[in-house]
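Why does this matter for the project? Reviewers at the last site visit asked to see concrete outputs rather than summary tables. In response, this paragraph embeds two records directly. Each consists of the residue sequence and, immediately after it, the corresponding structure tokens. Nothing has been edited or filtered.
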Amino acid sequence: MQFLKINPADNVAVALTDLYKGEQLIVEGKAITLLSDVPAGHKFALSDIPEKTHLVKYGYPIGHALQAISQGDWVNEKSIRTNLSGMLDYVYLPQNVSVEVPQSDLTFKGYRRRDGGVGVRNEIWIIPTVGCVNGTVKTLAENLRKETQNKGVDAIVAFPHNYGCSQLGDDHENTRKILRDMVLHPNAGGVLLVGLGCENNQISEFRKLLGEYDASRIKFIETQKTEDEYETGMQLLRDIYETVSKDTREEFPVSKLKIGLKCGGSDGFSGITANPLLGEFSDFLVAQGGSVVLTEVPEMFGAETILMSRCINKEIFDKTVLLINDFKEYFMRSGQPVYENPSPGNKAGGISTLEEKSLGCTQKCGKSPVKDVLMYGDRIQTQGLNLLSAPGNDLVASTALASAGCNIVLFTTGRGTPFGTFVPTVKISTNTDLYRRKPGWIDFNAGTMIENESMNEAKERFINYVVRVASGELVNNEKKDYREIAIFKTGVTL
């Protein structure tokens, strides 16, 4: 197959392979001669499109023509402009959402936690309260790995960051919330929190955020108050290790899984292969009683009304409106354009406007009802599909998803990226070429869906793969020890 018309209403089609000027294509019985080369993943016009007329993809407008576009022309960011501008008024127009997904008895092997949560990893994390002790946490993690050879635990990891002091207001609270969420995360069998002593993020105050916690698994050290922070820290870590290394996996239903949904380095295939595949997986997991979380609020702009129509009630609709408008106001306060989102890589991959990107991006959450809306740093409270406030930046958004309580982040990409956050970060390629070129980055290939594999076949293969990851199979970012966190910052630094 050389091209795909996604929706009957579309007036553009997507090239599935590189197409060349002069080629003749038969589209729904009509012969179309290409007027220029069209790279794979990019669009071409199915009819003459007058200036200022909507271009339609996925059945929705993705912008308007900057000048007249002829049938067979290559359509890209030079010939199309977004229709979006400024703030919008929204009206709650609920749709009756019904997703038919059969029940499954699938299980995975995870770790039971005292608070009722279930982890897919049993790791020891060393987390600084402030960037001043980044070197200390790295040394402690390295020493414990050498001493234990990682026996009895899945990993021993330090998570340095730049914050915890010289922050005010929301920035200070965001840092505290993300670190709290990490300390309480079920993938962590044990945590050592390392402070300096004079930072804004004081350990004495931070403890209060945790509520009741297991003191055999969560410990603290203030290095300014300790004569030898390395020996004291190592002794605390040995105590944590003694507890954590006794944990064993047991069987749990997939309803216990909490999964984050993310895309980055998208291309023209993202909304055709990998993102719809995640949508099918999302609907499957929600139907089993599990939870999925969609974030990247700026990449909802242009498709937000689709999500709003799926909100289970007016209260959740109002929260979704606030989610969208808060982010628009954040852009406007900073004097930045709200709708200029697609990156150079997105455009090179075939995405021309924010509407086009958003209509592909939001497919990751399937068609299930929106059950709850989380602000940045909030943790999942409601089973089902949740929306989360966070930017599109890959590491900031992935950190936010993990902090919300997601055991795994599923990350679709058409361009590729090696990074990982503090939970397994599964890379799903939108095309087979990327999968073949970057086997050390990509964990699962969805490009087969435009070759010879049906959606149902890909879905079954993907569900089984996620279950294996939840049961302990390592993904590439874990194998290479690419694990990082990034905390959202909006204000001044003192």
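We now turn to the second protein, recorded in exactly the same manner.
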Amino acid sequence: MKKILLVEGNLKEANQEFTENGIKTHTESLQESISYYTNSLEIDSVNPSSDKDIFDKVKDLNKYDGLIWGGSSLNIYSDTKEIRRQIEFMKECQKRIKYILAICWGMQVAVTAAGGVVNRGKNGAHRGIAHEIVINSDGLNHPIYKDKDKIFNTPAFNYDEVVTLPKDAILLSSNKVNNVMALNFETEFSKIWSIQYHPEITYEKMITLIKFRKERLLENKSFSDEKDLESHILMIEKEDKITKKESRMRELKNWLDLIA
């Protein structure tokens, strides 16, 4: 049986708050989405920020056929000890696990570990949804986008963006908010597919997150007022009604097919 490792990007305290409010952690959302396609994988999960024995586990990383590194509400440039632990663990993963799918925060950690740079986004943020992502010619020829529409909308929640690519990285898709929406790059050992959005998270969860973060989002001017926030939620609800699950999760399926 193939084995994969899921890496939780959020701090333990953030996940506890999610659980107390009836919200799935990002790792739980990943597990649920993976199970839609297959139950024939052995899956482990770790949290580099809080697992005290995380670096004791490095010697066992070679046993995994793949790794998926999920989202987080952290900002990579905050440079806290918890974030540094994640970057160091990612560096070890890039030496020992052949196939890596890096999602949103995972992309930012993977890019930083490989020498790239992430900063605050200059063109706004994705607040539960990313519109009109355009797959470029390299992306159309990359297996991550097999059977994906050339232009698509998708669940996303991010304020930061990749501004400097790792060496020899190939840009696969972009939109008006983030020029870098998907990248392919390799280390000496790993092949890394990275995306700045969340095919594994439902629009329903994104709406729940907006409501959960309502006060913070209004305080930081992500929305001008409550009416603006409610209008945004209605827009995402309409998108949810017309989005097919299989289309939304295509990138995850294509990566799972890669390691099958």
